[in-house]
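Exercise: predict the fold of this chain.
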Amino acid sequence: MALISVAGLAKSFGAETLFENLDVELHPGDRIGVTGPNGCGKSTLFRILAGVESADGGTVARARGLATGWLRQDPEFTPGVTAVGAVLEAFAHLDEAAAAMRAVEEELATSPEGERLEELVQELTRLGTLLDEGSGNLDNRARETLAHLGLKPALHDAECTTLSGGERCRVALARLLLEGADLLLLDEPTNHLDLDGITWLEEHLARHKGALLVISHDRRFLDDVTTATLTFSTEGPVLYRAPWSRAAVLRKEELEARRRDVKKQQHFIAKEEEFIRKHLGSQRSAEAKGRRRRLERLERLSLPSAATERMRLDMTPLRRAGDAPLRIEELGIGYDGRWLVRGLNCILEPGERIGVVGRNGCGKSTLLNVLTGKTPPLEGRVDLGRSLEIGFFSQSQIHLPEEKCVRDFIHDMRPRWTDFEVHSLLARFLFFEEDTERPIRQLSGGERGRLALAELMLKRPNMLLLDEPTNHLDIPAREALEELLADFTGTLLVVSHDRQFLDNMTRRTLWIDADGVRIYETSFSEAHASRRRAESARREQAREIPAEKAPALAPLRKVPSKTKRRSLERIEADIMSREAERTALHAQLADPEIFRQGEEVRRLQTRLATLATELSTLEAEWSAFGEP
């Protein structure tokens, strides 16, 4: 049975049609990636499916009792609530389930019969399972999820209104993941996550039993998480039963077939027009007129604007960098007396391509600012090679002239270019037709980023330092940027969380983590695999250490005495015994015959309530052993 079924869905804004004739069904286990250019209607579709916006046509049928979780890009929180408090809202359904369970138990105590008895027993079993799965220290679960998503522990008890936009999005994502909704609508869930956070999210979603609809421009994430792709284009939405990479191949094959059809039709039209010119007014004039009428009624084929041929941009640096490399010696960076990186030594030969990765806040952007001279190092030195000209792309584009339109901004940089050349360049950065007339102040973050990249490419430096260049870029824009950078012959140093982009563009990886800095002579994926192998080997080695050497390992909990160790073991044993008893009681209550014995039912219910209180107390005692 479908969780949600969409038929003939249509939505417009004024005279602009976002999409129409959209048909899609989601069943438990379905995982669909939603892709397409920014502004094509992806987020609008989610608002319709979440029930907060209406469609102009078509139907949306939802399964009875469907629980839908929607991750918005602009999450809202109750005033005064903390990050942990907001995440704990995910467990509100447990209170509702407990109340529902009490109501079911009260009705069962009246000794119902027949189908109603079976319905109540099934509902009691379902609610019992739900409460069992949601048991445990909820505060710890909330904090662990926030930590996995990269929110620092110091911010867990901060009010959501004081957090940055990216931090609020992580709080909203943590809350949503713990709600356990049947249908997840995730709008750009990897925005603001570092590589560790993205990896953890992929593993979490792999365990999700419901359906998933996810908007993302992260191609590797889409391949790892989804099994189907809903692609929006100028010709409407198309569903491919394949993850993003395979869907892209299928889409390309369709485009090539369309290009052949267009070429074939153009050849046919040219032949028909030549026949009409040659024979109109001759003995075959009637045939020529008939062909002209058929030609006028012929539906002309065309290609999407993004599929048209574009001008090739010369990416050769204006000035050769020479043979002297960029040298980094014993570099230490940080701010406000806080060290981020120390002892960094690296040599960048001309033409090298290095990706810089690590957790949010580890010092990646600070490193680029030090290399450009915007931030002084705390120690060490940076020697720039002779004739080195650096082009720097930062995450903020405050230098762009706000009132100037896109076309004029490029024309001022290349005053001798014709309008055709200016528009051809802008098409390479996915600015088409009326987009080129818009003032820069009206551009979105992604559009401003594309324009800043166009400016950078026109300057043709011999070294590019790029800080998250794919942020806010959709997949077509990311592919266009990769196409441009593939022709760049200078040195490239790029900070990015886009794993596909790193693999496509870089050949070495500089990884910053809590243990320091390490340079891998490979692209990102090989470096990541190497780190996971090393971590697996460390865990295996720890398991093989003889028991008598165990005290040398750092304990997870501070248990300073034998008395406390015995106390901890007793608490753990008590927890296990009570959990086993609770499972046995639920099994007894699942037997329809038990409800013919009203006194026994009440006894079991009373014991379950007592067990819940005892377990809560024991878990609090157990947690106290981990406190310093």
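Check your answer against the key: Residues 244-279 form the longest helix (36 residues).
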